[in-house]
Design a protein that fits this description.
The protein contains 33 helices and 9 strands. With 845 residues, the chain is mainly α. The chain has a 5-stranded antiparallel sheet. A 4-stranded antiparallel sheet has the order 2-7-4-5, with no helix packed on it.
Length: 845
């Protein structure tokens, strides 16, 4: 018995549809038509041709099923959208997004249901189900239009963010209502249990996606520039999060599931925000292209198959019902957008959403794949086929009417123009390119390949372009900016250049992920402060707003014996991190200062607007350079090791660039180059923690300078040094405090400390100690309150020796105890004639 497989027909059909999609994309790109709209129209045409001509029968094996949409296409579309969503913009606009996506969708569901129940013969519960299906928006066509027109970023986030969240809301809500419809009424249905199921599915799905996103990001951080592994991991997490949420919790209850859409949203946003920097720089751009292509394939197949699935006869038969469905959709959408969105601004949950944005959000609420997937997945009941026809008709209307008219609407509202900053960036880039071309003309003449007349003609042509480019900038300035806006724009452009420099340093491995994230966060705070409070904060001001309890916590850890080692590790890593951020800040400011000089040469920004910007970054550069110099003075070994690491990293980058050039030129085989690249990657990995490892300073030389330790044989210094604990102290932190007991003495390896005594409310400075000095040695004998306070003047590296660690040495070498006791007696005798209390500190000669 032979078995006939339909696989070849299915594969042939998919290939045919992809060829058609590629042709459509080429045409729509040239004529600037909505891609998804044309796909549906061509799909309808292909469905008609399939009935008439045998050659189109290859498309007969393709069927648009709910599982195909939900489990194959949807994770791709949702993940790519969430991954590329601006996390910062989403966070700032989470109020209106969630308001429209959850309460807004629920309100829309009941409004559509009530209107249809009142105007048609559809029962109430069934009408509510249809309302839940039709309330999910699908802005694929709108978002592609926004990208082409350069619409404001906030508008894009509002439209796309609402769609991401309300897709999940619609699916979960529809599943709850289906149970009621199949049961034949609301008997036995509890609103409380429905709300609980909805909340668990929504929040639980988001939690699953967030956890999987974190785990994937952690694994991505361990992978070094391997596109196959990194792209595979993102693909796996997109589909695994959906499948795990939808079908992975049946062990709790057979019908228990979470929202797969919310799981993909959680994973995508987590990886697109926090996890993006975990992806290797060489893979990041390739990954974005990969997901763009995946979305192209999914979009093309979905909308072509929607067109193939449309039954024009069924639409005509249900035309009266469809008209009421469209009226209900438009009314409910208007109530939700124009009614709920202003409330978010009224309660000051976020920046108010203007009427122009609301209008675009209203008309841009297209319906698409989610609605079709839900309606096709409905079980058999009285109105199923009618609902399929109505949903198909509603999707067609939103695509063909709203989709086609979106571009004129956006233009009419004046939202098709990029932000002023983007317009200036484009104009200045064009001017810089023209100026670069003008500067290249003498090179053409020097090469002897062009005659003088040709060079002069080209020079005249580009000189004219130069004049026009300057006029365009001046027109923009006169039409869009006043003096305050001009200066703010200059700052924002400079901050953008600073951000680019940090990204470049991170991609080259010259900044760690921790430092890069912190510097970007501080930079974003500066940008937000400039935009909303008109105050340009410095990096130093922002750092002072940081966590103030760190030093106190470290002092507490120092008092707990088991945590002292951890406290010191934290201090050492903090020092390395501080040096790295100052170095990066210094490099970033240098880049911005060069950028400002280029603007001055182009004369594209008035000098009076650039002067405060130049002064700001000059001061920032000086502050960072001063901090670097201070660290170099206090920790020369650490700085030398760090500079060596950075230098070696730059040289490895140069080696990689040379290998890439050899491969492109065909000199070096690709397989050989891969092996050599792996060797370079291994050498780069070995450099990561080099700076911190070199912070430790051997204490044996310091011990040899302490008089009462010269009784110990030279070979025993190593044993005593092993008992000492390194400690780093930031400026102005108290090492010893007057009146508090202690059991440790300290040796200064790096830095300066000041000893002071308070008597009758008067502070007296007793001594200033520096590298090679020691203090607190009497605590090795007595458990008495300290008689002085010792504070770090500069960043200090100390070695701490406790009384209990000295006991065995004093027992083995009684001369040490005798020397300490003799020193104690001499000090007591010397201080008998002094009115103030003795201060417990010494200094070596």
């Amino acid at each position: 018995m032979t078995h006939t497989s339909h696989t070849p027909e299915i594969v042939a059909g998919i290939i045919a549809l992809l060829l058609v999609a590629a042709a459509i994309f080429a045409v729509t790109k040239k004529v600037k038509a909505p891609f998804s709209v044309v796909l549906v129209l061509v799909g309808i045409l292909l469905a008609a041709l399939r009935k008439e001509y045998e050659v189109f029968s290859v498309l007969g094996g393709l069927e648009l099923s709910p599982d195909l949409i939900l489990y194959v296409f949807l994770p791709t579309l949702i993940f790519e959208s969430a991954f590329n969503l601006d996390a910062g913009q989403l966070r700032r606009n989470l109020g209106p997004v969630l308001t429209l996506a959850v309460p807004g969708l629920i309100l829309s569901t009941f409004l559509i249901g009530f209107i249809l129940h009142l105007t048609t013969s559809i029962p109430f519960t069934s009408a509510i189900l249809l309302g839940a299906i039709l309330s999910a928006t699908d802005p694929v066509a709108v978002i592609s239009l926004f990208k082409r027109l350069g619409a404001p970023a906030r508008l894009t986030v509002l439209v796309e963010g609402e769609s991401l969240f309300n897709d999940a809301t619609s699916i979960v809500l529809a599943k709850i209502v289906v149970v009621v419809v199949i049961a034949g009424g609301t008997a036995g249905f509890s609103i409380t249990s429905g709300l609980i199921d909805f909340t668990v599915a929504f929040a639980g799905g988001l939690l699953v996606g967030w956890v999987l996103g974190l785990l994937t990001g952690y694994v991505l951080g361990l992978v070094e520039s391997d596109p196959f592994i990194e792209i595979t991991l993102t693909t796996v997490v997109a589909y695994l999060s959906f499948i795990l949420a939808e079908d992975g919790f049946h062990f709790i209850r057979e019908d228990f599931h979470l929202s797969g859409v919310m799981a993909v949203v959680g994973a995508g946003i987590t990886l697109g925000g926090w996890g993006r920097m975990k992806i290797s720089p060489s893979v990041r751009e390739y990954l974005e292209h990969f997901w763009e292509y995946m979305v192209f394939v999914a979009t093309a197949l979905i909308f072509l198959m929607v067109g193939l699935r449309v039954d024009l006869h069924a639409l005509w038969t249900n035309l009266d019902l469809l008209l009421w469905v469209l009226v209900a959709m438009l009314i409910s959408r208007a109530v939700v957008v124009y009614g709920l969105t202003p409330l978010v601004g009224f309660f000051k949950l976020t920046e108010p959403v203007g009427i122009r944005y609301q209008t675009v959000m209203y008309w841009g609420g297209l319906r698409g794949a989610i609605a079709i997937a839900i309606v096709l997945s409905l079980p058999d009941f009285e109105h199923r086929e009618t609902f399929v026809a109505l949903v198909m008709g509603a999707v067609l209307f939103t695509l063909l009417v709203q989709g086609i008219t979106m571009e004129p609407l956006v233009a009419l509202l004046g939202l098709n123009r990029p932000p002023v900053a983007d317009q200036f960036a484009r104009a200045e880039s064009a001017l810089a390119a023209i100026q670069r071309a003008l500067d290249r003309i003498p090179t053409l003449l020097a090469g002897g390949m062009f005659s003088g007349p040709i060079a002069r003609r080209l020079e005249e042509e580009y000189a004219t372009h130069n004049v026009h480019a300057r006029e365009a900038i001046n027109d923009l300035r006169r039409g869009e900016l006043n003096e305050e806006q001009e200066q703010k724009l200059a700052f924002l452009q400079s901050f953008s250049e600073e951000k680019s420099s940090y990204l470049d340093l991170y991609n080259k491995g010259l900044l760690s992920e921790r430092a890069f994230r912190q510097m970007l966060m501080l930079l974003q705070l500066q940008i937000d402060a400039l935009r909303y409070s008109r105050e340009c904060l410095t990096a130093g001001m922002l750092k002072r707003r940081g966590w103030r309890f760190g030093p106190s916590l470290l002092r507490l850890m120092d008092r707990l014996r088991g945590l002292r080692g951890w406290a010191e590790r934290i201090r050492l890593h903090t020092l390395a991190y501080t040096y790295e951020t100052n170095w990066g800040h210094c490099a970033g400011c240098s880049t911005v200062l060069k950028y400002i000089q280029s603007l001055e040469r182009l004369d594209s920004v008035p000098k009076w607007a650039l002067e405060p910007v130049h002064e700001h970054f000059r001061k920032q550069h000086e502050e960072a350079q001063y901090n670097l110099d201070q660290t170099t003075e206090q920790y020369p070994e650490f700085v030398a090791a760090t500079q060596e690491r950075l230098g070696r990293r730059m040289l490895l980058l140069a080696e990689e660039e040379a290998l890439e050039e050899e491969v492109e030129g065909g000199v070096l085989p690709h397989s050989v180059a891969e092996t050599m690249m792996d060797e370079i990657a291994a050498r780069r990995q070995a450099l990561k923690d080099m700076g911190v490892a070199r912070l430790r300073i051997e204490p044996t030389e310091l011990l040899s300078k302490v008089p009462f330790f010269n009784k110990i044989p030279e070979g025993e210094f190593t044993k005593l040094a092993a008992r000492m604990r390194a400690r780093s102290v930031p400026p102005n932190e108290a090492i010893l405090e007057q009146g508090k007991s202690g059991s440790s003495m300290f040796l200064i390896a790096r830095g300066v400390v000041r000893v002071s005594h308070t008597e009758e409310g008067i502070d007296l400075d007793l001594a200033t100690l520096m590298a090679g000095d020691f203090f607190g040695e009497m605590a090795l004998l007595h458990d008495e309150p300290r008689t002085a306070t010792v504070k770090a003047v500069t960043p200090c590296s100390l070695y701490q020796l406790n009384r209990e660690d000295m006991q065995s040495f004093m027992e083995a070498y009684p001369a040490i105890r005798e020397a300490l006791e003799e020193s104690d007696r001499k000090r007591t005798a010397e201080l008998k004639s002094v009115t103030r209390k003795p201060w417990e500190s010494s200094k070596t000669s």
